[in-house]
Fold Formamidopyrimidine-DNA glycosylase.
Amino acid sequence: MPELPEVETVRRGLTKSVVGQTITEIEIRYFKIIVGNVQEFRDRLLGATITDIGRRAKYLLFHFDNGWTMVSHLRMEGRYQLRAEKSEFDKHVHVIFSLSNGQYLAYRDVRKFGKMQLVPRGSELNLKSIAALGPEPLTPEYTSEALRAGLSERRKSIKATLLDQHVVSGLGNIYADEVLWQSRINPQEPANNLSATQLTTLYQAINTEIKRAIDAGGTTVHSYVNADGQKGTFQGQLQVYQHTGEACPRCGNSIAKIKVAGRGTHYCPVCQPLNS
Ligand SMILES: [Zn+2]
């Protein structure tokens, strides 16, 4: 599943390749990807030019010169592909935008969970799903006080709390495991039971980890590739995620894998004990 660093990498790649392009045709092969009226979606985007591409957490925001914004959520497996020929797209491609430079921008999604929705520019942050997101790492809204206040209201596990996006947005399973290991916090620790030191360390670790992952072009696990078909390189810097049974880089004991919040969770039972 793409997390914040992967979506940011996609955004940067798409910005270089499609900003300034006008949509000359749209082929929609699987209607359920589109939220709302499919015909309106087509009509509004035909002839529109992409002016810039923004992002909020894991949502891509394609802004058009006619005042519409296409909100695109990649969900589990969604990705964008840019090709010179339509024949290069396989059966998992569900939406194809023909661009004025003769290229094709396609949305491919094996699981078909992704969504695209058109909204008037400026209203995208009011969409229920986006408005519910907590502050994002590396922005002024994400402060140690905001993190502390958000966590203090939650009794469920810190891992589940990081995954649910309400206190801080953008971390998925990979980066949640990594930042908890760095902060020596047990994934099952109740979110409102962190020590002051753990809170400070976690706050920093989230910013640092997200920045390092963006700099590395994201993490490639499973099928993630950016818009150019390139893989991220951050997987080489992961310390615990998918390192089950290997030595903890800090204390040498074995990395364990358990289920927390329904997700496979990697941690070191020795240097990430539960607080008493
Ligand atoms: Zn350890």
